[in-house]
Amino acid sequence: MRLWLLRHGEAEPRAEGDEFRPLTAKGRDEVRRSAARLLGKGIDAIYASPYVRAQQTAELVKEVLAYKEPIVTLPWITPDDDVSKAIDHLDSLSGRNILLATHNPFVSDLAGFLVYGNRQQPLSMATGSLAVLEGELPIAGAMELIELFHP
């Protein structure tokens, strides 16, 4: 399995609620630069948090890649979701090459847990950062960090 973890681009600091914060112009540029690294990688599925900035991030990736399939929304990859519960869901996702458009601290914690097998070593993910993980199964400590790109 190859798992691309993409933290959304920079978002506006305020909105009616955290889930409604849209990407800034800088954030859209960050996402486009990270998405360009996915060209030719054979993404099977794009999954996104229901938050506006993650949905916008996924749509930008879809546009850059000319990806034709719909984006699938996952309610369990929001900023404060439980990484151990998320891992239980990962193996059930369709595709062997999948992208998650999500948030910090969730994305940093998930990447660290999958690579290092613990929650004490989160992977540093700035806005627009893209981590590439690979392994047979998405379980704690069983995946290898292939690349970490910061736009």
UniProtKB/TrEMBL annotation:
<dbReference type="InterPro" id="IPR004449">
    <property type="entry name" value="SixA"/>
</dbReference>
<dbReference type="InterPro" id="IPR029033">
    <property type="entry name" value="His_PPase_superfam"/>
</dbReference>
<dbReference type="InterPro" id="IPR013078">
    <property type="entry name" value="His_Pase_superF_clade-1"/>
</dbReference>
<dbReference type="Pfam" id="PF00300">
    <property type="entry name" value="His_Phos_1"/>
</dbReference>
<protein>
    <submittedName>
        <fullName>Phosphohistidine phosphatase SixA</fullName>
    </submittedName>
</protein>
